[in-house]
Every structure is written in structure tokens, then in C-alpha cells.
Amino acid sequence: MSNPILMQLTKFATKSLYYEVTLSPKPGLVDRFDNGAHQDMDFFMFIDSIESLAPYFYEYARLGFEHHGDLASLFTKLRHKGIEAERDMLEATYQINTHKGANFSFAVLLGATGFYLQEHSLPFSFQDTANVLSLVSQMTQHLVQQDFSHITQKNDLSHGEKLYIKTGVLGVRGEATQGYPALSNLLLPFLRDHTGQENTEVLLLRGLILLVSQIEDSNLLHRGGVNGWQQVKQRGMFIHESKLNEYDFRQSLTSFNQELIEKT
């Protein structure tokens, strides 16, 4: 029988991915309007991908909720389940990587949340959220060393592994190891400060542009190199700091998106 609290977490996670793909316009990314700079995926493929992953979100939370032991062993359980989820995702998307990073992040975030809920309850305070992110950091402290220590001996490298060899960028592993500072230091404070001031889509789009202006984007680095990533980052910073009204903001995102499409 399903645990109603864990089902609530599953719904939150699934809804967040639907929100993300539905947000429009998103410069260079798949949304309701177009495929952005991606020629191998579209909106409907993202829907299929989300549907394939959603059942695993419950499993991630359950593994954490039922775990008794150290956090490193919890991570091992989550990684094994995450590999199953990725396999189903790739089958649903004809081997296109739509949500590999999201799948990893939700595995550790939901696993840590489930673990935390053994002794705490929803709804979470800001401090509860910070505590969960700290658990994620503790759970993944070994990850960079474990995954990258013998990386040059591997034959079949992922995009993230190739990027690490080339640039030293740690990607989603680095974010997790640090407790997702892009969330704790950037996005969550922004959303908390601005919720209720604009409609949900505009608020989330502004949050997206804030992230674009600040974070290391491993996907952009892989596709466009350091120069391409820096250009996108600078444009994001300009849009964010311009504090445009909704109409002009949407227009600037549309123009930005078209520029990125033309570069592909």
C-alpha cells in the first residue's frame, strides 16, 4: 500500500518536470512553442520521458524513508534504482537523453527527503529544506572521487565525464556534493522573495534566467564550449538585471531563443 506522504513527494517532483517543460519561451530549450536549439527532441518526447520516470520518484522517496544505515549506503541503493529509471527513460525517448540530470537530482533529493521524513513532517520550513540539502551533500561526498578517480581508464564516457576531463567542470555531481548551491543560494531565495508578485510562469522564467546568468551549465559547455556558455551567461545576466516588464521580458526571451536556434 502506498504511503500518502511519499505519494505527495512524488506528485511534487512530477509536477515540477511538467512545469519546467511547459514554461515558455525558454531560450534554447524545449518548450510549448518550439524545440529550442534541440533537433532531436520535442515537447511530446519530454512528456513521454516524464511519464517513464514518475514511478521511480516514489521509489527514491521510499528508499530514503525505509533506510536504516549510513548515507553512503543509501546513495548506493538510489544509484541502482536510478540506473533502472534511466534505462526506462531512454526506452521511452528512443535513446535520447531528456532528463538524465534531473533523474539523478531527484534520486538524491527525494531519497534525502524520505530519509529526513523518518523524524520530521511536511510541510517543510526553510530550515527543513536546508537540512535536506545538507543530507544530499553528506550522501554524495564520495561521489566525485569515486566517479572521476580512474576516469581516464574508461572507454565509454558520458558527456559529463568528457567535460570533466576537458574543463574540470563537475556538473551535477559537483552540485550534489555541495548541497545544490544553485538552489539554496540562488533560486529558492529568489522565489521566496518574489512569489505573489507575478503570475507563476513569469516568476519561474525569471528564476530560470537568474540561473542561466550564474551557474556552470554542463549541457551548454558540451554543446557550445566555454565561449558559447559565457555568451549565454552574459546575455542571461543582461536580461535579469534589466528588470523588464512582462511583455518586454517575454520578447527578450523570444529573441534570445531565436538567436540560439540560428546558432545550431
Automatic annotation (TrEMBL):
GO MF term list: ATP binding; triphosphoribosyl-dephospho-CoA synthase activity
Its EC number(s): 2.4.2.52
Enzyme class name: transferase
Keyword field contains Amino-acid biosynthesis: no
Superkingdom of origin organism: Bacteria
Reaction catalysis annotation: 3'-dephospho-CoA + ATP = 2'-(5''-triphospho-alpha-D-ribosyl)-3'-dephospho-CoA + adenine
GO biological process, one term: prosthetic group biosynthetic process
Keywords: ATP-binding, Nucleotide-binding, Transferase
InterPro entries noted in UniProt: CitG, TriPribosyl-deP-CoA_syn_CitG
Keyword Transferase among record annotations: yes
Family the entry assigns: Belongs to the CitG/MdcB family.
Name of this protein: Probable 2-(5''-triphosphoribosyl)-3'-dephosphocoenzyme-A synthase
Organism: Tetragenococcus osmophilus
Lineage: Bacteria, Bacillati, Bacillota, Bacilli, Lactobacillales
